[in-house]
């Protein structure tokens, strides 16, 4: 019984690490966010603010055992870019990133349950 519990804990930890890495990689490739960081549109602590965004996304996705509606992810990304980085994104990338986050989350749910 103890081995089964340890396997479950290890699997959950591994799933969380994969989820965090997926979010970080995706955000590091998002041109609009990287421009906001590079140009410090959120102030001199723009990099830390991007880490905070990643943590918020991880928190939302890791706590949900069901797929998160794409609209919720789009709203989180839009509000963060607008309020944190003073940036209005109209190139469709918010929707693309939200869809990719959904795919990452679906993989996370599959991995977590196995």
TrEMBL record:
Keywords: rRNA processing. It comes from the Eukaryota. Pfam families: WGG. InterPro entries: Pre-rRNA_process_TSR2. One of its GO terms (biological process) is rRNA processing. PANTHER family: PRE-RRNA-PROCESSING PROTEIN TSR2 HOMOLOG. Belongs to the TSR2 family. This is Pre-rRNA-processing protein TSR2.
């Amino acid at each position: 019984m103890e081995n089964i519990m340890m396997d479950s804990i290890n699997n959950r930890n591994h799933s969380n690490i994969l989820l965090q890495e997926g979010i970080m990689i995706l955000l590091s490739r998002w041109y609009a966010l990287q421009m906001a960081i590079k140009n410090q549109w959120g102030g001199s602590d723009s990099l830390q603010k991007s880490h905070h965004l990643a943590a918020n996304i991880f928190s939302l996705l890791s706590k949900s055992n069901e797929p998160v509606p794409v609209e919720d992810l789009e709203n989180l990304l839009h509000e963060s870019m607008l309020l944190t980085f003073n940036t209005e994104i109209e190139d469709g990338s918010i929707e693309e990133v939200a869809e990719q986050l959904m795919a990452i989350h679906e993989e996370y749910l599959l991995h977590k349950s196995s």
